[in-house]
UniProtKB/TrEMBL annotation:
Domain FAD dependent oxidoreductase stretches: 7-357
EC number per UniProt: 1.5.3.2
Entry GO MF terms: N-methyl-L-amino-acid oxidase activity
Cofactor(s) it depends on: FAD
Keywords: FAD, Flavoprotein, Oxidoreductase
Top EC class, one word: oxidoreductase
Source organism superkingdom: Bacteria
Gene name linked to the record: solA
Pfam family, one: DAO
Name of this protein: N-methyl-L-tryptophan oxidase
Coiled coil residues, start to end: none
Length: 378
């Protein structure tokens, strides 16, 4: 059967599903997508107005080629839709050079010739006085970096997919995915539909929908907290996002509205989310203590009373590497899961890879290190 005539289901139209639907529809597949809510909602992994895009990777430099592929597709989606989804205002990476993550950043910059600046304490004090560096810290400005609008991106990719012929069933949770001899059946409360292939991108619901999944995906509850600066330093001409790798891994973004700065923490500091259908969205005062301490130590011009708090969910694998590829024993079901807090920037690339796998059964992208084929069961 030719790629153009393949029927592909996309289960979950969030970060990855909206991009997969776009890439599949762009290649002429017949796409039917399902979401338990509607594209652009804030009840899962993709809310809170901003996500960091960067080209230097501190987790693993093998992501860099995928980031470059994503970069091209970000531009393509913006051009096709006329929407500004990303703003390349830079990202400052700060932390001890003794720590492995800063070493990986410097390694990926050197290996891939990335556009960057290393800033010493004097340059930091002049250009970015809002940050307090510690002895032994390095500061690197990744210039091909900035922020993405997550809700706008999901809606824009989903709408682009619809323009190209995809159908999206909103408020339609998929209850079961059943591999059958000549494809796969998607079961919802409305009935059952047959497809050649299914792409499954249900984020924090992955264990709910696929209880037999042979890998552990730990669903965590992430707090975003917005603080208002007491000086003008955050909203000058340069407005980079930042990531601090040590001593407490955290990140932040000046809000696009020019009023507040959003802060977030890393994996070790997130509580388990529990049932994704019953996420506790209330932030207790004691959960803010760590933010207050970070502000006191590293960003003293932020007023420590948050003006806004929000809670999201994300799935983490043990290695923090996502699971991308066919489900064991079900070649017609392509899984994308466990993005471990760093999937958004890469999402157009993952959508494209999902389309490769669903339509061709293989991808030219270097995904061995994240492929389900290369993973042993937990
Ligand atoms: C607070 C926070 C900050 C982050 N910051 C960054 C960052 O700065 N940079 C970065 O690159 N990444 C970041 N990430 C990570 C990134 O946002 C995630 O990796 C990414 O959004 C995960 O995408 P997903 O498609 O797996 O999940 P989602 O975007 O949550 O999509 C899953 C979709 O599946 C739907 N669904 C679930 N079950 C079903 C079902 N049974 N049937 C139909 N539909 C279903 C849901 O409604 C949802 O729309 C952050 C994550 C969080 C939570």
């Amino acid at each position: 059967m030719s790629a153009a005539r393949k029927r592909v289901a996309v289960v979950g139209v969030g970060t990855m599903g909206s991009q997969a639907a776009w890439r599949l529809a762009a290649r002429g597949a017949e796409v039917v997508a399902y979401d338990r809510f509607a594209p652009g909602h804030d009840r899962s992994a993709a809310g809170g107005e901003t996500r960091i895009f960067r080209s230097a990777h501190f987790e693993d430099s093998r992501y860099v080629p995928l980031l470059q592929h994503a970069d091209t597709l970000w531009e393509q989606l913006e051009q096709e839709t006329g929407r500004e989804l990303r703003r390349l205002s830079g990202c400052l990476l700060m932390g001890s050079t003794e720590h492995q993550q800063m070493a990986t950043v410097l390694q990926s910059i050197a290996e891939h010739g990335l556009d960057h600046e290393v800033l010493d304490a004097e340059a930091m004090a002049k250009r970015f006085p809002q940050y307090r560096l510690e002895d032994g810290d390095a500061a690197v400005l990744d210039r091909r970096a900035g922020f993405i609008h997550p809700e706008l991106t999901v809606q824009t990719a989903a709408r682009r997919a619809e323009r190209l012929g995809a159908r999206i069933h909103r408020y339609t949770p998929v209850r079961e995915i059943v591999p059958v001899a000549n494809g796969v059946e998607i079961r919802t409360d409305a009935g059952s539909e047959h497809f050649d292939t299914a792409v499954v991108t249900v984020g924090p619901w992955v264990k709910d929908l696929l209880p037999e999944l042979p890998w552990e995906v730990d669903i965590r509850r992430l707090i975003s907290a917005w603080y208002v600066p007491t000086t003008d330093a955050w909203f000058g001409e340069e407005r980079p996002a930042f990531i601090r790798t040590t001593p407490t891994h955290c990140y932040g973004l000046p809000s696009p509205d020019g009023v507040s700065v959003k802060l977030g923490l890393s994996r070790a500091l997130h509580k388990p989310a529990g049932d994704p259908n019953a996420l506790d969205r209330t932030v207790q005062p004691e959960e803010l203590e760590i933010f207050t301490e970070l502000i006191r130590r590293h960003m003293p011009d932020l007023h420590p009373d948050p003006t806004r708090l929000a809670v999201y969910m994300e799935g983490y694998t043990e290695s923090s590497r996502p699971l991308v590829g066919p489900l064991p024993g079900a070649d017609n079901v392509v899984l994308l899961a466990g993005f471990s807090g760093h999937g958004f920037k890469l999402s157009p690339a993952f959508g494209d890879i999902a389309a490769d796998l669903a339509l061709e059964g293989r991808t030219p992208q270097p995904i061995d290190f994240i492929s389900t084929h290369s993973r042993t069961a937990a």
